[in-house]
Amino acid sequence: MFDAVPGALLAPVPAPATAPAAEEEGERILSVRYLLRAEPSPGLLPRLMQPFAKRDLLPDRLRAGREGAAMRVEVCVTLPEGMVHLVAGNLRSVVGVIRLEVEHGRVAALAA
Fold first, then answer.
1. Domain locations in the chain?
2. Measured between alpha carbons, how far is 96 from 70 in angstroms, rounded to an integer?
3. Which of 61, 85, 90, 103 allows an S-S link to 76, with CB 3.0 to 4.6 Å?
4. Helix axes 44-53, 81-92, angle to 10 degrees
5. Residue 67 parent element (H or E)
6. Out of 3.30.230.10, 3.40.50.2000, 1.10.390.10, 3.30.70.260, which CATH number does the structure's domain 26-106 have?
7. Could you give the CA distance from residue 71 to residue 35 in angstroms, rounded to a whole number?
């Protein structure tokens, strides 16, 4: 279902408007992909979006599909490095999540 290869490098995603301020403060901006396997339920996707919404983050991509008795979900987002583990922790605690993998790469600075 996924076109991702574990450990593969991610293509840089244009950084959001808030990224330069975070870069100036010394915090790196990362392009992150969260890959999840979860038990299917009607409320799963809204529960998975909550950790992003409460941090005012808008995912760049969300893909979900059912594979047999489980759901596979991919969420790609650009965020400061310090938030990567916080969001991962929130996603792991969502009811129904069986497995979570996190892949990330640094977003290249855009020339002005």
1. 26-106
2. 10
3. 61
4. 150
5. strand 61-67
6. 3.30.70.260
7. 11
- Convert the pLDDT of each residue in 28-82 to its tens digit: 899 999 999 999 999 999 999 999 999 999 999 999 999 999 999 999 999 999 9
Structure tokens, 106 = 């640094």
- Residue with structure tokens 């808030």? 18
Count Cβ neighbours within 10 Å for each residue of 15-36 and write b for 16 or more, e otherwise.
bbeebeebeeeeeebbbbbbbb
What residue ranges in the chain does DSSP mark as E strands? 29-38, 61-67, 70-80, 97-106
Which one, of 4, 7, 3, 29, lies nearest residue 83 by Cα? 29
User: What's the rounded Cα separation, in Å, for the pair 49 and 75?
Assistant: 9
- In the sheet that holds 29-38, the strands lie side by side as 61-67, 70-80, 29-38, 97-106
The pTM of this model reads: 0.74
Residue 49 DSSP SS3: helix
